[in-house]
Amino acid sequence: MAATQEVARFLSDHSLVEATLKIVVVFAVLSGLVAYLVYLERKVLAFMQARLGPMRVGPWGILQPIADGLKLLLKEDLVPAGADRTVFLLAPVISVVAAFSVFAAIPYGPGGWTITNPNVGILLILGLSSLGIYGIILGGWSSNSHYPLIGSFRSAAQLVSYEVAAGLAIVSVLLIANSLSLVAIVQRQQQMGAWNVFLNPVAFVIYLIAGVAETNRNPFDLPEAESELTGGFHTEYSGFRFALYFMAEYTNMVLIASLAVVLFLGGWLRPFESVRWLSLLKYAPAAALVGAAVFVLWLGLKSRVRAERIFFAALAMGCVLLAAVVAMPAVLEAIQGVFWFTVKVMAILYAFIWYRATFPRYRFDQLMTVGWQRLIPLALSSLIVTAIMLVWTGQRLAPLLVANVLGGALTVLILSARQDSGRFRTIEGATR
Amino acid sequence: MRERLRELFLVDLLRGLRLTFSYQRPSATYTEQYPLERPPVAERYRGAPRLNNHPSTGETLCIACNPCALAYTENLIVVGWERTSDRKKMLTTFTYDLSRCMFCGLCEDACPVDALELTQDFEVARYSREGLIWDRSMLEEGPEPTRYTR
Amino acid sequence: MTDEPKSPPNGGTSDKPVQRAAPAGPVTSPQKPAATSPPKPTPKPIVKPEPWASPLLEALQERFPGAISDALIFRGQAFFTVQKERLIQVAEFLKSEGGGSYCLLTDETVVDYPKREKRFEIIYQLYSFERNDRLRMKVLAGEAETVPSVTAVWPAANWLEREIYDMFGVVFEGHPELKRILLPEDWTGHPLRKDYDILRQDPEWVRANLKIESGQ
Amino acid sequence: MIPFQWCLFLSVGLLTVGVIGVLTRRNVLVILMSIELILNAVNINLVAFSHYFRAVTGQVFAIFVITDAAAEAVVGLALIVALFRNKETVNADEMDLLKW
Amino acid sequence: MAFLILSMAALVSSILVITRRNAVHAAIWLIVALLSVGGIYLILQAEFLFAVQIILYVGGIMVLFLFVLMLVNVDASVRQAPFNRQWPVGLGTAVLLLAEMAYGFWRGGAPLAAAAVSTVAPAAQGNTQAVGMALYQNYMLPVELASLLLLVAMVGAVIMAKKRLG
Amino acid sequence: MAEATFLDSNELLVNMGPQHPATHGVLRVKLRLDGERVLGSECVIGYLHRGVEKIAENRTYAQFAPYTDRMDYVAAVTNGMGYCEAVEKLLGVELPPRAQWTRMILAELQRIASHLLWLGTHALDLGAMTPVFYTFREREEILNIFESYCGARLTTHAFRIGGLQYDLYDEFETDVRKFCDYFPGKIDEYEQLLTTNRIWMERTQGVGVLSAEDAIALGVTGPVLRGSGMHWDIRKAQPYEAYDKVEFDVPTGEHGDTYDRYLVRIQEMRQSVRIIRQCLERLEPGPIFGKVGKIIKPPAGIEVYHSIEGPKGELGYFVVSDGTVNPYRVRIRPPSFLNLQALDKMVRGHLVADVVAIIGTIDIVLGEVDR
Prior knowledge:
The structure holds six protein chains of six kinds. Chain A is mostly helical. In chain A, 71% of the residues lie in helices and 0% in strands.
């Protein structure tokens, strides 16, 4: 029978095993990264706010994500009365699946460092990630409660609106790269000798802002604005399902960061690849590990608890050993791409956390105004400018950069021309 | 124009970002790891009450005169005494209901002999309401300070 | 609080039972000044309210003959009593420019004298930005009498009059929505009246709504 | 390989289901959804022909159909919103007035 | 094999679409059906169409559907009869249609299948590129018309859904 | 909230509070909405009502003082000061200068502390989560000074009728001076985060506009009134303590919106620092207690109204004596109570999200509203 033969062929296929392995690895790494992203966020936020953050679970609280996860797993899984039970239980799963499945198409490094490389990669990613909306809408709707419903509406409206701006920003990159495949986009940046962020900084800024909005993070975190809506669409969720939403949210953050890196920041490319005297940047992975070792050692020396000192010393030791391994030329060559990719992703994630620590929150109508009346016209103008310059001068760095910056500035000025300029007020004490 | 340019290049937002970034230096951290490091309390702090004994003789300083009980009408201090043979008052019991205390210090002010004192101890939480009613021995010995371990 | 824990039996409850000091008269308020302070009871002779004389008062008396009485001044604070029937006119006059534009109603409250014939003394604290001056206006009202509401003159009186209604049971005529403000709608009694016992705070309500026995 | 007819069978099946939905349901929204089903049946046909006859035209037409579906859905939903605001119902058989 | 699974999924979920009482559930099943159809596109080597299907249909149109579904009060319609009074007529018509189709297959199916070129590897240039070329070279005018159609639809939708002032 | 929220043109009743993260305590606001737009509001208060005025009638004059701390519990020093001054006025007592300067220093510190708490929570309501940590850090310094001075941080019971309970502790002047030196720099930091931030401006400008006429009619006082453009501060208009001997400016807004009220309070903190510096200059050793007897027993039948400029507005005490040791009646004129009355006027026509901003900008403390 043809079907059984097909199945047999499918299974014996070498690439299938490889892909499965990769999927498992990516999933594991991603889950860990997401868990520790929460820890990182809490720590960075705390430091920016003159606090220490989690300190109680493990030395410097590094076991906090595990404790959180355990707590959420052990909590009662509540389904509110009157909820649409099936949909309620299904919604977080949709969110999480949509968030994780997208990572199949992301190139983490050159060659085999990707699960699959479809030639419509970017479209696939956009499509799959837009499925996450269903998790949000259905979760909010099925809770049978007002605040989640409003939260989910806001969330979905926000996602849809900002996807337009992000999509337009991406299109200008596609124009430059001449391909929909993510690998090809990175390779094109390598050929050009310049990352896309230098070709079209305006699009990068737009993408970043829209990305922040799409992940529902401050200053666009209205769906979860606790001072207005308590918890947004996941108000009624608890325990494991809440954890799923949480994971989906942070996975989406990682996704937006990864996409930004691939599209604008040269993916796995090492910075200054073409500059010869900076080629010692090649040793950055080892150096980073040594640096981590020093930092950990310093933490250990500061600690007053004996067990902590031992732990940190061991950790430092491990880092040094790992650095030694990494410093071997073959290994160094192999992990080069992945290392730089990770570094860039972490930098963007850090920026996301940084925004959260700094900015107030927009109001919903203002959020929509920013999306539709600022970002989309700006993205359109950037797209048009890029297209014109590509036809006119070809793919050359300087004209593209200049034209884009000038075009962007002009657009912003035109857009903000209607605003009253008397926004900056000051009050001096008046004696009368 | 200057304003426009500042707005264009997001100067306002960048200034805020710079500020929060600069606060990441370890020296800016303000947290006290409370159970691990006990915060210093001011000398005049009004915390858990104590009934002072004479440092050398160990006899109570309280003369059972009662103004502390009258100073505050929340009725939280009950002084019991009996007359000795020479018609002097002798303190027998002294209860202090911490659950009603608002640590205003009026009773301390009223004490003419420095017997009743609000100490610097601030850990007065108990697991039961009854635990907040302190008798004389508790007031004289003071509460057992909580020890924290990791 | 009625049956407080007594001291143990051997505690000499003989001559001074422990008790709240509330109305107990000359119980010392144990003020212990840190610095030296003379122990004499009255530091200096306290002046009594004196008759108040001012152009404003004359104008008032001229416009509303017989409506103003007991115009006094104490510690630089002038006050007078207005006939209840003329209250709104007087209020409007005081708010107008000719009357000194007392446009800020700082406070409105009641003092309850249950032994008097008209037990409620409603007090309006006025302030004029232009003259930088405060004025106290009083209106007397008996137990079952209503008082005209000044919300039309000073909108600020809205909540203040609701609070008075809540606490004293004085009914204001012409108030847009006179209902309880601080206490629950189904509370009985008006707690700030002098004859409202602080120990009997509607135990029925407490039992019904808080599901506990009244702690008082 | 997949026989050509299978695609056509699937297409017919979806079409029939869609037609049944349009003809029998009361809820206007479900009717709209059934129309989407019909359009998808058409698309499957187009793509199948494009695939088996190695002409890209079928896909191009499918894209036009999707465009049309988007326009139709937007207008249809706007109509439903407007109707609902006035009549408080989404049932097709209650929308029997020529004016509202 | 994959085709069979996907087409069964598409058929079953489409039947569920028209039988569910709750319109939101119907929409969810429609999403499943659309995804299955998208998978069939992938099998038929129309990657671009697959992406368009997911982005536009699943990510766009269906979100809009769900939005409207949740806006209008569905509680009432859940309790009412899902089918209208002339459902036997509708069903009969559909069956008739099916029969007609079957007849068509019976008569014309074989020659059609014979005419179909057996599948070969897709053209060297990507599917996306091919579609794009066709769209912007041969079908320029229809593309413009389609964009006009979208614009008109958008304006119309905004006007219709807008709250009346006053 | 009905399901058809977004389509209905009908009115919709939404309940905010009493358990809501943005109502600053137990305030309940019933909102009448059209979609997300507020048509009207009604405040339901009294969840924290403790009958302070009734308690006062059952306490002696001195015993009531600690209760005043519990009204506006973020500005206990100012509350106590107002009460003590009212009774002192009743008795006709003059304070020695040292007591006056000390009271002014502590009261201004308390004003800063109160404004800091307001700033932090207000920013938090609008989604800026960092300022609250910075402001609490500075507030902590002030509370440390309070603690060193009188032994308590929040409900201080710092003053006694007729003067001060404690003389200043030894390092008081250095502590306060240190605070005055570094605090203005911290205000600059808050301003960097908020004042020029475009999101902050968009959220606050034009929101909750209250004209001066409306403000006066509704009895609004304090920074809210000044934000509406009224140049009125009791410290200037009818000086108490020794406010007539210090120089300071009264900041006033122009537009009467949330942003102006924010600017007014920021400026007030700077002015408070200025006052504190002057007070420190004048602080000289001397007695700290006026001529008050051990038993406070004013003659019968006199009454006095005394008001001070609290951090939230005019804080007035109306004390009536009947010749016993207990006051016959103590009426407290809470600024928050009357300011809250203006909420309805301010929220009309705005969005639900603005209600949060407006409640924050009035700076209410429910302990004071309900007493």
